[in-house]
Design brief:
The chain is mostly helical. The chain has one domain. Helix content is about 65%, strand content about 0%. The chain contains seven helices and no strands. It has helices at about 5-15, 20-45, 65-70, 70-90, 95-110, 120-135, 150-175. It is globular. The mean pLDDT is about 90.
């Protein structure tokens, strides 16, 4: 990602439309790619001698179930929140990465328990890399107000707060938390 950030950013800036919409779309695309990788890893567990459902990264072996019933559908409001925050405050791409990674750490901890804090580095990178490249691509378009301490705290919490109602609705429509076919 680091090596190709300039050519990818140029291509991204060439897309037509408002930068906020492009930001949300690129974040969503990266989240979909991330979930394709993790769902594939979950499906590969039997190749390593582990039964399906005994060792897993995703809530299901079904990609569409994962993205529509567990993860990306809840991430999109978070990306919208970041587009709004970036239209106001001048966060640097690395700051966006660390802050969204922090939001991911909070989300994983509240969703699956305090032991998720032990994997803080993993969650920082998993979540942070979903937004780093899009934030880098729009770095010249963001708001002109330098962020203060309160903005950093808001940046940790606002995405989580806007995603919570969506997570409740998704949980109501799709109440099964973890399930595997077979």
């Amino acid at each position: 990602m680091w090596r190709y950030r300039e050519p990818l950013s140029r291509r991204f800036r060439g897309w037509r439309g408002r930068w906020q919409v492009k930001f949300v779309l690129l974040c969503s695309l990266l989240a979909l790619i991330e979930e394709a990788i993790t769902t594939t890893m979950t499906n590969l567990a039997p190749l390593f001698g582990v039964p399906t459902g005994e060792a897993y990264i995703t809530a299901s072996t079904n990609y569409l179930d994962v993205v529509l019933g567990h993860s990306v559908v809840v991430f999109v409001p978070m990306f919208v929140a970041w587009a709004w925050m970036l239209s106001r405050w001048r966060f640097q791409p690395k700051q966006v990465m660390v802050l969204f990674g922090g939001t991911g750490i909070l989300a994983e901890t509240f969703s699956f328990g305090g032991h998720q804090l032990l994997g803080w580095g993993l969650w920082l990178l998993v979540y942070g890399l979903m937004v780093y490249l899009p934030a880098y691509a729009v770095r010249h378009e963001v708001g002109d107000i330098p962020p203060r301490l309160r903005h950093y705290l808001m940046a940790l919490l606002i995405p989580y707060l806007v995603a919570a109602p969506v997570a409740v609705v998704v949980g109501w429509l799709h109440p099964v938390r973890i399930h595997f076919e077979g």
